[in-house]
């Protein structure tokens, strides 16, 4: 159901109830009502929710998966979160961390399995 997809997208993106409320100019309690299905989210607010969570409107509507197998939505969420970071030092640290994690994973995959 759509209210469950709204909540899942928000939680996966790490957006708090208060932050989503600010985005939509409503109270955190109203966000809970949308996520519980008590109240319906107006169609004109759906793109705001999607943007805040880094997902597509189609994903929130259930027309495509919120997280695709190829990681497309994961990348979109990462880029969306990165854009919200205003401090260049923090941005650089995040990039350096991602590069280091990728290199560590690559090294891990290359190691031969130890004999049991």
Give a summary of the structure in a few sentences:
This protein has 116 residues and is mostly helical. The protein is built from 7 helices and no strands. Residues 6-60 form the HTH cro/C1-type domain.
Keywords:
single chain, 116 residues, mainly alpha, 66% helix, elongated, Lambda_DNA-bd_dom_sf, Helix-turn-helix transcriptional regulator
Compile the SSE list and pairings.
Layout: H1 2-13, H2 17-24, H3 28-36, H4 46-53, H5 57-61, H6 72-83, H7 88-110
Helix pairs in contact: 1-3, 1-4, 2-3
How is this structure best described in words?
The chain is an all-alpha fold and 116 residues long. It is built from 7 helices and no strands. It has helices at residues 2-13, 17-24, 28-36, 46-53, 57-61, 72-83, 88-110. α1 (2-13) runs parallel beside α4 and α2 packs across α3 (28-36). It is elongated.
* Topology pattern, helix = H, strand = E: HHHHHHH
Helical amount: 55-70%
Percent strand:
under 5%
Radius of gyration based on Cα positions: 18 Å
The coarse overall form would be: elongated
Secondary-structure-based class equals mainly alpha
User: In whole angstroms, how far apart are the ends?
Assistant: 47 Å
């Amino acid at each position: 159901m759509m209210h469950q997809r709204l909540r899942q997208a928000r939680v996966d993106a790490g957006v708090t109830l208060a932050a989503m409320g600010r985005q939509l100019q409503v109270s955190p309690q109203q966000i809970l009502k949308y996520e519980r299905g008590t109240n319906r989210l107006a169609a004109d607010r759906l793109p705001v929710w999607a943007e805040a969570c880094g997902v597509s409107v189609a994903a929130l509507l259930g027309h495509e998966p919120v997280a695709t197998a190829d990681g497309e939505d994961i990348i979109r969420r990462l880029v969306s979160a990165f854009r919200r970071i205003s401090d260049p030092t923090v941005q650089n640290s995040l990039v350096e961390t991602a590069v280091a994690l990728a290199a560590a994973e690559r090294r891990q995959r290359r190691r031969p399995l130890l004999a049991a």
